Amino acid sequence: MAREDAETGGEEYPKEGHPVFVVQKHRAKMMHYDFRLEVGGVLKSWAVPKGPSMDPAEKRLAIPTEDHDMGYAGFEGVVPEGEYGAGAVMLWDRGTYRNLTEGAVSMEEALSRGRATVDLHGIRLRGAFTLIRTRGGQWLLVKKRDTDAIPGWSEEPDPRSVASGKTLEEIGMEQEER
Ligand code: MN
After folding, report:
1. How far, in Å, is the centroid of ligand 1 from the Cα of 47?
2. Does some domain include residue 28?
3. Can you tell me whether residue 111 is helix, strand or coil?
4. Ligand 1 centre from 82 Cα, in Å?
5. What CA–CA distance (Å, rounded) separates 149 from 52?
6. Distance (Å) from CA 104 to ligand 1 centroid
7. Per residue of the chain (178 residues), what is the pLDDT tens digit?
8. Is residue 90 part of a domain?
9. What spacing in Å lies between the alpha carbon of 35 and ligand 1's midpoint?
10. Is 25 contained in some domain?
């Protein structure tokens, strides 16, 4: 199945027959996190400047960006200078999700309506998150108050990749050495 091959980028991670999500920490001109959800065979994507939070009190701005191919879900490395998004990319989290949007609507429909709830099964991110489109056309990514929520949560100082165990710094430096 071509879709599955592309989906994993040749690597394996929990799938359980559910769609995947990935969060890539990306040191481009501005440090940000790319939050991506598999919807309809592509990765729907948002740039989250401060990154997702496990704290329900934190409403994180999520700026819609271009859809990416499923193959990008496995990408970690350095986007070369001169290309869009040049800089180091680290797999900050990945796993599968379930659509928990009220009314049992599809993800496509939920996103077009501007409100989707997903139950994430990742390593750093777990439990329900809501994506809400604001009047200004931006989105907010907010942890729901469930048993997985961690009030006061903050990211560890120098997080490591869930795929390679490397820091963003190490990923960036390796490429320079080649
Ligand atoms: Mn990015």
Report:
1. 6
2. yes
3. helix
4. 14
5. 12
6. 30
7. 333 433 444 444 445 589 999 999 999 999 999 999 999 999 999 999 999 999 999 999 999 999 999 999 999 999 999 998 899 999 999 999 999 999 989 999 999 999 999 999 999 999 999 999 999 889 999 999 999 999 999 999 999 999 999 999 999 998 655 5
8. yes
9. 9
10. yes
Q: What's the domain range around 123?
A: 3-146
Dist. CA 90 → ligand 1 center (Å): 10
Residue 96 Cα to ligand 1 middle (Å): 20
Identify the helix (H) or strand (E) that includes residue 119: strand 115-121
- Can you tell me the distance from the alpha carbon of 26 to that of 88, in angstroms, rounded to the nearest whole number? 6
CA distance 75 to 141: 22
* The total number of structural domains that make up the chain: 1
